[in-house]
UniProtKB/TrEMBL annotation:
Taxonomic classification: Bacteria, Pseudomonadati, Bacteroidota, Flavobacteriia, Flavobacteriales
Keywords: Cell membrane, Membrane, Transmembrane, Transmembrane helix
Membrane topology: Multi-pass membrane protein
Protein name per the record: L-fucose:H+ symporter permease
Residue spans crossing the bilayer: 55-75, 82-101, 107-124, 145-167, 207-224, 251-274, 286-304, 316-334, 340-362, 374-394, 414-434
UniProt-annotated location(s): Cell inner membrane
Length: 440
């Protein structure tokens, strides 16, 4: 009877490491969502067009692509703990670079700081995800990763709170006159320079404090014993592992599904501010809709973790991808507040996707999961170039959000055709997961 019992999601021996590593999921969630509103903030402070401002996300998510594979080499050669410590070190350096970037008032220095910061996030995600998967029985691995990933939106909510209260609420470049018109563009060059200096300092401070906190986490984890969980004998080199994993359709399909999913997520969470602004809602108030999206995302993450006990994970992934397509259609074709509500509801559908794609793609790879994890993290590059594509759509006809109409809707509405296409790719992977790959 005892042998028929399902193994625990996390054993007592691995509980403390699980808690510490799970806290890192919140830590990179914080970085993600304090940065999303910065696209709109930098656009106003530095008077950029939509495409130029979207390079914030290109720098942020490009760092994942650059550093994920080196991170896998470090983890494979040394240990999960070393990978985590390197990641925290790079994270702290990138955050602290915001100080000289603000002093120089240089947009490209800010982009460099974000790029280095995400070197650290690439190490953390490349390390933490397979480490969580290894902390127990393989049959509970995807459920365990969903549980850990459920704490990511808690960090994201904290990042949004800091962005709203300490950044967007304090930016003078976002001030309006009594008629609701922007003041910043009408200022003299001297006054505008003073506002620019003040606003860039406002952006700087939360990142610098974040860097200090990350240093604290580095010291804490450095002094805690971190067992490696289930061990696999390393029978081959890194390149042998890479050759093996790219022969597995299930893994390769997961990389492509992850690339498109991340692109969709970042587009939906970045351009919610522009969508709201086109409806007459300022950035600070638009954060409330981003809050709602993340709360729905958090609820969905816990609910879907529970539902996976009863529903095939591949089938659930497919169904939620189809539901996301439905809400994207609402975002595109419902003009007014209803379209914004549809955009918020997309987040419920996204809640399951990242950890489930990750778990399906890595299941059964053994020690090859370490380099495989790197390629799944590299797929986060979808968050780098897809927002740039959406920014280019927004710049059709000008830098406003309703310069032209496409299919009878403003270009900001039509731009969400890109996430819709991404979710169609995810739906296809979910279908193959339960029909072809035999995912339970």
């Amino acid at each position: 009877m005892k042998n028929n019992q399902k193994p625990p999601v996390v054993s007592k021996k691995m509980l403390l490491p699980f808690v510490l590593i799970t806290s890192l999921f919140a830590l990179w969630g914080f970085a993600n969502d304090i940065t999303n509103p910065m696209v709109s903030a930098f656009k106003k402070i530095l008077e950029l067009n939509n495409t130029q401002a979207s390079w914030v996300q290109a720098a942020f998510y490009g760092g994942y692509f650059t550093m994920a594979l080196p991170a896998a080499f470090v983890v494979k050669k040394y240990s999960y703990k070393i990978g985590i410590l390197v990641g925290l070190g790079l994270y702290a350096i990138g955050a602290l670079l915001f100080y000289p970037a603000a002093a120089m008032e240089n947009y490209f220095f800010f982009l460099l700081a974000l790029y280095v910061l995400t070197f650290g996030l690439a190490f953390l995600e490349t390390t933490a995800n397979p480490y969580i998967l290894s902390m127990g029985a393989e049959e509970t691995a995807t459920q365990r990763l969903n549980l850990a990933q459920a704490f990511n939106p808690l960090g994201a909510l904290s990042g949004l709170f800091v962005a709203q209260v300490f950044i967007l609420g304090a930016l003078q470049s976002d001030d309006l006159d009594a008629e609701g018109n922007a003041i910043y563009g009408t200022l003299s060059e001297t006054a505008k320079a003073a506002v620019k200096t003040s606003d860039l300092s406002v952006i700087r401070d939360p990142y610098v404090w974040l860097g200090v906190f990350v240093i604290f986490m580095f010291v804490l984890i450095a002094f805690v014993r971190m067992p490696e969980g289930k061990k696999y004998r390393d029978v081959s080199g890194m390149w042998d592992s890479i050759r093996r994993i790219f022969k597995k359709e299930r893994f390769v399909g997961g990389v492509f599904a992850q690339l498109f999913y991340i692109g969709a997520q970042i587009m939906c969470w970045t351009y919610i501010y522009q969508y709201a602004e086109n409806l007459g809602i300022n950035n600070q108030d638009a954060v409330n809709y981003a809050y709602a999206a993340l709360i729905i995302f958090l609820i969905g993450r816990f609910l879907c973790t529970y539902l996976m006990k009863f529903i095939n994970s591949g089938k659930l992934l497919m169904l939620l991808a189809f539901l996301a397509i439905f809400f994207c259609l609402g975002t595109i074709f419902i003009q007014g507040i209803g379209g914004l509500y549809s955009l918020v509801l997309v987040s419920f559908c996204m809640s399951l996707m990242f950890p489930t794609i990750y778990g399906i793609a890595l299941t059964g790879l053994g020690d090859d999961a370490k380099p495989a994890s790197a390629f799944l993290v590299m797929a986060i590059v979808g968050g780098a170039f897809m927002p740039v594509l959406q920014g280019m759509v927004l710049d059709i006809g000008g830098s406003a959000y309703d310069d032209v109409r496409i299919l009878g809707v403003p270009e900001v509405n039509f731009s969400f055709m890109l996430p819709l296409i991404c979710f169609a790719v995810v739906a296809g992977y979910g279908y193959r997961a339960f029909k072809v790959y035999g995912v339970r």
